[in-house]
Amino acid sequence: MKRSQSIRLILLGGLSAGALTGCTPKPSISTENVYTNNYFVPGAGYYHAPFRNWYQLPYNHFDPQKNLYFYGGQWGAQPFESITNISSPTPEAVQVAQSTRTDISRGGFGGYSSGHYWGGGGYSGFHS
């Protein structure tokens, strides 16, 4: 009898631990943290370390239709070469990335619903 109770407790403990792992908070973006090229934040985009900011396309993304590479919010004929592949974002980049990310739940009233911005107009958080 005691043995079956302990098995039940272990199973229930395992299930509750698994359910709680989905509730862990996402780390906030900070100027004290360092990020590598193409570190992705849902809603904010891809981090470009040499430019210390997030953009809608990955660093050195090649578009075959344009025959150009995307980096730092611009297009170029060659991929951007830099020894910087890790950096800390600017305070402005942190503010935009934190406000546009969609991987966190924002409670309360306002233009946010389930972590997605539904407001009209304004700044999208992406640089082109």
The pLDDT mean sits at 76
Helix-strand category: alpha+beta
Task: Say how many strands there are.
Answer: 10
N-to-C SSE string, H for helix and E for strand? HEEEEEEEEHEE
**Gap from first CA to last CA:** 67 Å
Strand order of the largest sheet: 2-3-4
Q: What is the 3D shape? A: globular
Q: Percent range for helical residues?
A: 10-25%
- The low-confidence parts are 9-21, 110-128
For the biggest sheet, the summary is:
3 strands, antiparallel
Strand percent estimate = 15-25%
- Rg to the nearest angstrom? 21 Å
Layout of helices and strands, plus pairs?
Elements: H1 2-20, E1 35-36, E2 40-41, E3 45-48, E4 53-55, E5 61-63, E6 68-71, E7 74-76, E8 86-87, H2 91-100, E9 112-113, E10 116-117
Antiparallel strand pairs: 1-8, 2-3, 3-4, 5-6, 6-7, 9-10
Question: What is this entry, summarized?
Answer:
This protein is of the alpha+beta class and 128 residues long.
Q: Care to describe what's here?
A:
This protein has a domain of 89 residues. Helices cover 23% and strands 21% of the residues. It is built from 2 helices and 10 strands. It has a 3-stranded antiparallel β-sheet, with helices on one face. Strands 5-6-7 form a 3-stranded antiparallel β-sheet, with no helix packed on it. The longest helix is centred in the first third of the chain and has 19 residues. The termini are far apart.
List the defining traits of the structure above.
alpha+beta; 3-stranded antiparallel β-sheet; 23% helix; globular; disordered C terminus
